[in-house]
Input
Amino acid sequence: MTKMLESVISSNELPESTEVVIIGGGIVGVTAALALAERNIPVVLLEKGHIAGEQSSRNLGWIRKTSRHAADVPLAQAADRLWAEIPQRIGREVGYRQAGIMFLAKTQEQLAMHESWHQSVADLQLDSRLLSQADIDRLVPGGRGNWAGGIYTPSDGRAEPAIAVPAMAAAAIEKGARLIQQCAVRSLSMAAGKVSGVVTERGEIRCQQVLLAGGAWSRRFLGNLGVALPTLPLICSVLRTKPMDGPTDIAVGGPDFSFRKHQHGGFIITQRGKLDAPITLDHLLVGWRYLDQLKTQRSFLNIGFGKHFFRDLALARRWQPSSQSPFEQIRTMDPQPNPQLNQDALNNLSAAWPAFANASIEEAWAGLIDVTPDSNPVIDQIKAIPGLTVATGFSGHGFGTGPAAGQLAADLVAGVSPIIDPAPYRFERL
Ligand SMILES: Cc1cc2nc3c(=O)[nH]c(=O)nc-3n(C[C@H](O)[C@H](O)[C@H](O)COP(=O)(O)OP(=O)(O)OC[C@H]3O[C@@H](n4cnc5c(N)ncnc54)[C@H](O)[C@@H]3O)c2cc1C
Output
C-alpha cells in the first residue's frame, strides 16, 4: 500500500433508500458517483475497505492512448478531455500533467508492433509518432540504450492516483453523493424481476439501480448471482524512489522497465516485462479463454502456484445475503510486492539511463489487476438482471480512462446519451 494515499472523510449512516447504489470506491465508482451527483441523482457509494484502497491508488498513474486497442481509443480521448477539466470541476489538484508517454523497442519485432498499432489508429487523429534512436536521445538525454526505435504521444499524460481519486471522492460528497466506507455489499435484493436494493453487511438499502464497479471482486459478486464474468488476476509490483534528478518529464516504457516522474520529485518504476500470475481456481474455470493472450504474452508472466491459490480457495463462491461474504473477509487486497522484480526494474533502467544508478527506494507496493480475455472492460447493463449495470475488468489500463468510464457508466444508469458509443464494452462479447 502506498503511504501517499489520502483518506476520505465519508458518512457512517446507511440510508434506507436512494436511487442508485454504486458498489466499489475505485476510480470508476467514484467518478460515476461524481457524475450522478452533478445531475442531482441521489446516489450512495459503498466501499468494503477505503476509497481507492485497491488498484486505483496502486497504479502507475499513466494516462495513455498509446498502444490501446483502436476501439478503446475514443474512451481514452474522452478521458483526456475530462482529466484536463477535473481541477476546475472539483476545485482540487489531481497531479494531471500532459507530459507525454513514450514506448521503446529493443528489437525490430517490438518496433513492428508499435508500427502496426500506429497504422491501426491512423484515422483517429492522434498525435502519436514513431521515433528513431536520435529522437529518443534528444527527448530523453543521457541514455545508453541501443534502441530499434520507439513511439511517442505528446498528449498522453499522468496524474497522481493516491491523490486524484480521494480528491474526486471528496468532490462527489460535496456535490451530494453519499459515500460509505468499511461497508461491503453482500448481494442484491430483487422484486418483480428487477433490482430493488442491495444487502450490505450493515443492512439493506432500497434503490432503483445498482452500478457494480468492484474491480477484481466483480467476478465473485456476479458469480454469486449466477452471472459468469471471465476475469483473471495478475499482480504488478511497483516502487517509488526518493526525490532525485531524472532525465525527462515524459513517462517512458522500455521492454523491461518503465518510469515516470512523481509530483514529489521521485520516480514511479516497474518491471514492465514481468507480472506475477498467481494460479487460482479461476484459471481452471476460465483459463481456456485466455489461450490467445497466453501465446503472445507467456514471456511476460511469472506463473506461480502457492499461497494465493489456497487463500482464494478459502473464500466462498456462493453465499447467502444473511451470511458473511468474501468482501468482509478481505477489506483491502494488498498483495506483497515482488522485491526481485522491483530490483530487476531498477537494474534494467539504470543500464539504459545511468542517472537511475544511485536511485534509492522510498517505498514499494503491489496491486492485483483484473484482466478480461480481450483486455478490455465491460461497461454495460446486464440483461439477466434488470437494474444492474457493471463497469469492470479494466485489465491494467483503467486509471487513465477512469473518468470517462465512470461517466459512461453514469450515462447508462441515468439513461442519457452516452459520452461515447458503448459498443466495444458490451458484456455479451465475452
Ligand atoms: C500496479 C498497477 C499499475 C497500474 N498502472 C496503470 C496505469 O499506469 N494506467 C492505467 O490506466 N491503469 C493502470 N492500472 C490499472 C488501474 O489501476 C485499474 O484499471 C483501475 O484502477 C480500476 O479501477 P476500478 O475502480 O475498476 O477498480 P478498483 O480500484 O480495484 O476499485 C474497486 C473497489 O471496489 C471495492 N469492492 C469490490 N467489491 C465490493 C463489494 N462487494 N462491496 C463494497 N466494495 C467492494 C474494492 O474494495 C475496491 O476498492 C494499474 C494497476 C495496477 C495494480
